[in-house]
Design brief:
Radius of gyration: 27 Å
Oligomer: single chain
Strand content: under 5%
Number of strands: 0
Largest sheet: none
Helix content: over 70%
Shape: globular
Length: about 375
């Protein structure tokens, strides 16, 4: 039983912390900083500072109103863990659990899942321990006791949910509406990521488009009469490509994960780069439509080429950063700042020429060396 629990903790609990470490660290630092560094009203001797801050923390622990808020936050955190574990249970790499784990009795499964969930609930248990220590010190034990029972209840409910999910028969893959609609369509190599984007990354695509709408609307309203200045339109399109940088990264990730064999096929680097350029134009088609309807044809073409060249450069840049997303985003931001100032000096033709040339050099020199790039990154 303990071996099974260890496997589940390694598969789900620690990975949950790794993916949500930033959120958890920010939450704990915010609460602790607030309790220890808030300035209280009035003047008090410095030696009484610790006492007043402890009283403030006691208010958070023994107040029924605050307890309800804390319980709501605990529930939201637990729901977040349900969504994560449920998603991981459906992942292909964890399908073995349906056959190995389910060979145990339901009671053993429940205990293992309960221990796994308790590890996920460690931040809540830490809050309860702290509340218990202060409660014992100041004789306020009722709310810490209720908190303990509430955490146990969340653990039991979570375990029952996981137990139900993991004992279901593996569902057959259902074809989405877009899959049914496009099943007879010819799908050239260059369009495969677009299908993947619509089926698997619909939320990311929607958020990206919302961000570009807000970007265009804010800059357009901010510059007013200067909106027809080609430098303003250039900055807008640089921002559009920057917002799409995550989708550009996912294009490379998709092809490295599912289509790495394509390097053995008769696809030349420049041809692959050209196909990506066409795909990028389709991806930013709504933004280009706005550009061509609000600016002159020559200015719109010039700015669109700038956006395309930056997109090509970002796509090639991933061969230097490999699949390290944080490193890629840092490079992307630095590149955007540099290009922003070059656009402000109205050197758009020079900039798009440099972008195109550098992207072609990187792509051509690194296309057949992905393993070398990844191993040295």
């Amino acid at each position: 039983m303990m071996d099974t629990a260890k496997v589940l903790i390694k598969l789900f609990s620690w990975r949950f912390y790794r993916e949500n470490s930033g959120f958890l660290l920010f939450s704990y630092v915010s609460v602790i900083s607030y309790c220890f560094f808030i300035k209280t009203a009035g003047v008090y001797p410095p030696e009484q500072s610790v006492f007043y801050h402890l009283m403030l923390m006691m208010t958070f622990i023994v107040s029924p109103a605050v307890m309800l808020i804390v319980f709501l936050l605990f529930l939201l955190y637990t729901i977040k863990s349900w969504r994560y574990v449920g998603k991981q249970l459906k992942h292909e790499t964890n399908q073995f659990l349906y056959y190995s784990f389910c060979a145990n009795s339901k009671s053993k499964q429940f205990v293992s899942l309960f221990l796994m969930q308790l590890v996920i609930l460690l931040p809540l248990i830490g809050y309860w321990l702290f509340a218990t220590i202060l409660g014992i010190a100041y004789k306020a034990n009722l709310i810490p006791l209720i908190t303990f029972l509430y955490i146990l209840l969340l653990g039991v409910i979570s375990s029952l949910i996981y137990l139900s999910q993991i004992n279901r028969i593996v569902p057959s893959a259902k074809r989405s509406k877009i899959g049914k609609l496009s099943k007879d369509w010819k799908k050239p190599y260059a369009t495969l990521f677009l299908y993947y984007l619509i089926r698997k990354l619909g939320l990311s695509l929607t958020l990206t488009k919302v961000c570009t709408i807000l970007l265009i609307a804010s800059i357009s309203s901010g510059y007013g009469a200067l909106i027809n200045d080609e430098r303003v339109s250039g900055i807008i399109m640089l921002g559009v490509v920057l917002v799409h940088s995550f989708l550009i990264y996912k294009d490379h990730h998709f092809k490295e994960t599912y289509l790495s064999f394509s390097r053995n096929m008769p696809y030349r680097p420049f041809g692959v780069l050209k196909d990506f350029g066409l795909m990028l134009l389709v991806l930013i088609a709504p933004e280009l439509l706005w550009l061509f309807t609000t600016h002159s044809s020559l200015e719109a073409i010039k700015t669109a080429l700038l956006a395309l060249s930056l997109g090509l450069l970002l796509r090639s840049l991933i061969y230097l950063t490999a699949l390290q997303i944080y490193r890629y985003l840092i490079w992307t931001f630095c590149l955007f700042v540099i290009e922003f100032y070059i656009v402000m000096y109205n050197q758009i033709w020079l900039l798009l020429s440099i972008n195109t040339l550098v992207s072609m050099i990187i792509f051509y020199s690194r296309y057949y060396k992905p393993n070398q790039v990844i191993s040295h990154s």
